Amino acid sequence: MRKTLIRKAVIPAAGLGTRFLPATKASPKEMLPLVD
């Protein structure tokens, strides 16, 4: 059985994303990239 590596995921997040301004002005909070 092969294990697959997950490269991208969408995490549903409620709210307006005001703590992430000005990044959330250009794209929704759900589409912001996460870094390890």
Explain what the structure shows.
The protein has one helix spanning 23-26. With 36 residues, the chain is low in regular secondary structure. The longest helix is centred in the C-terminal third of the chain and has 4 residues, at 23-26. It is elongated and about 45 Å long. The relative contact order is 0.22. The mean pLDDT is 80.
Secondary structure layout plus pairing:
Elements: H1 23-26
Search tags:
36 residues; little secondary structure; 0% strand; elongated
What is the string of helix and strand elements?
A: H
Rg from Cα: 13 Å
- The helix tally amounts to 1
Distance between the termini: 26 Å
Fraction of residues in helix: 10-25%
Basic shape = elongated
Total strands? 0
What fraction strand? under 5%
Mean pLDDT rating: 80
* Poorly predicted tracts of residues: none
Please outline the major beta sheet: none
Computed structural class: little secondary structure
Short description:
The chain has 36 residues and is mostly loops. Helices cover 11% and strands 0% of the residues. The chain is elongated, with a radius of gyration of 13 Å.
